[in-house]
Design goal:
29% of the residues lie in helices and 28% in strands. The protein is an alpha+beta fold.
Length: 448
């Protein structure tokens, strides 16, 4: 502690996330709190992370574990180091984030005012939608274990979720942990490896009568799901369902059998929805759900066997359709009647667009889901301002070589200036056209 400022150790766990971690560290270096240390824990990365990070930030403490210990034990390595070094608080931070300079000051100030608070979490925004809330704390239904992020998807003008609030849990993306409470309740349980470990820690904290607080003046931006290569990856499916069962066993002993039955029904329904949606890897994900469930009942916890994620299944995908038919399903021409548009800040703008089907099949192809026109909005520096904006549906049965004229509606941001609109096509449950090789189409927009 220096000049009455508690000592904070900031822990960033890295596993083959060199680019994200470097950006995160550059952001963290701007934090205005006067007494904190940064520790990078590397879970045996093989992407050159250690060399690059040490070169860019040679003054920081770098701990190499030599293997992938997962989120739980990887962070525990850093937490133990911080506790042994005399930390008053530990701030666990995902490497796929950028932070506001005031984040630690806001969290520690509230922690010092609230001595019963063991865990404090910030207001988290989407990285690619910087004014849209991803999490303002967490809620959970203890009868069903359904949980969610408070404020998810809310556009924030500064007034949304603006009061310090007691919550049931907070995401492991960013947690300020009081060291004295950790000595009482313990660290993350390595049996979880990743997913649900923060939920379990929060449950233990609440059972001890300690508080979990959401602190709105502490802010960060999160590249959601970077660790899983997007939502509902096979890795996510394995750990989510195995660890939900483990969470129920550890924290709801009186009702765990009924929760097991409920979670098993939910896993079956989840798989049905994946298959119904046309998910490209639904069979592999279903297998991972099954293996996670089997391993739970066999008492196999911690890191999943590597072979689970290497088992391959035939894919009912657009790739197979293209291979069997020799057709390219994802080519289009997007035209505008002019290349620059203008509008008023905060209003909507109608943009006349012509979309021509240059593929080798009538749209929609592969599934009955409509093809839709969407846009991404970037500022002059290329930073995303809005991602996947208002969608405009193309007419059905748009044949090869035919065009559709649309009036696309764009929601303009509140800030004036010049922006770039990137236009793409998407077919739900199949693919974004740009992911299949189509170039995005751009036009400029001036907002006054």
């Amino acid at each position: 502690m220096t000049d009455n400022h508690p000592l904070v150790y900031l822990i960033i766990l890295n596993w083959n996330g060199k680019t994200d971690t470097l950006e995160c560290l550059a952001s963290v270096k701007s934090i205005d709190y006067p007494d904190f240390e940064i520790v990078i824990v590397d879970n045996g990365s093989t992407d050159g992370s250690e060399k690059a990070i040490r070169a860019a930030f040679p003054e920081l403490t770098y701990i190499q574990t030599g293997e992938n210990l997962g989120y739980a034990e990887g962070n525990n390595v850093g937490i133990r180091y911080a506790m042994e070094s005399g930390a008053d608080y530990v701030f666990v931070l995902n490497n796929d984030t950028t932070v506001d300079a005031h984040i630690l000051s806001a969290l520690v100030t509230e922690a010092e005012k609230s001595p019963n608070a063991a865990i404090l979490g910030p207001k988290i925004y989407f990285y690619d939608r910087p004014d849209v809330i991803n999490s303002a704390g967490g809620s959970i239904n203890n009868d069903t274990l359904e949980r969610g992020h408070i404020g998810y998807g809310t556009k924030d003008d500064g007034s949304a979720h603006s009061i310090v609030t007691s919550v049931e849990w907070t995401t492991g993306c960013a947690m300020l942990l009081r060291v004295s409470a950790l000595r009482e309740v313990g660290l993350f349980d390595p049996d979880f490896f990743l997913i649900c470990e923060e939920l379990d820690l929060c449950a233990r904290v609440r059972r001890r009568g300690l508080d979990i607080l959401f602190v709105p003046d502490a802010k960060l931006w999160h590249k959601v799901s970077a660790a899983f290569e997007g939502n509902y990856s096979p890795v996510y499916c394995y750990y989510f369902f195995r660890n939900s069962l483990l969470y129920a066993r550890k924290n709801f002993r009186d009702s765990r059998l009924s929760l097991y039955k409920l979670l098993l029904r939910q896993s079956r329904e989840f798989y049905r929805q994946l298959a119904k949606s046309g998910d490209l890897d639904s069979r592999k994900k279903g297998f991972c759900i099954l293996m996670g469930t089997i391993h739970f009942f066999l008492g196999r916890f911690g890191r999943a066997p590597a072979w689970v994620f290497k088992v391959n299944f035939p894919r009912k995908t657009t790739e197979l359709v293209e291979e069997s038919t020799g057709k390219d399903l994802f080519k289009a021409e997007i035209r505008f009647n002019k290349v620059e548009f203008s509008g008023k800040a905060g209003n909507t703008l109608t943009v006349p667009v012509t979309v021509k089907n240059l593929s080798e099949a009538t749209w929609p192809a592969f599934s009955s889901d409509a093809v839709r026109l969407s846009y991404h909005l970037r500022d002059e520096n290329g930073k995303a301002v809005a991602w996947d904006g208002l969608r405009t549906t193309l007419p059905g049965n748009l044949r090869v070589g035919k065009s559709a004229k649309l009036d696309a509606v764009v929601q303009l941001p509140e800030n004036r200036g010049s922006y770039i609109l990137e236009w793409d096509l998407v077919q739900e449950s199949v693919a974004w056209f740009s992911s299949k090789g189509m170039e995005v189409h751009q036009c400029k927009i001036h907002i006054d």
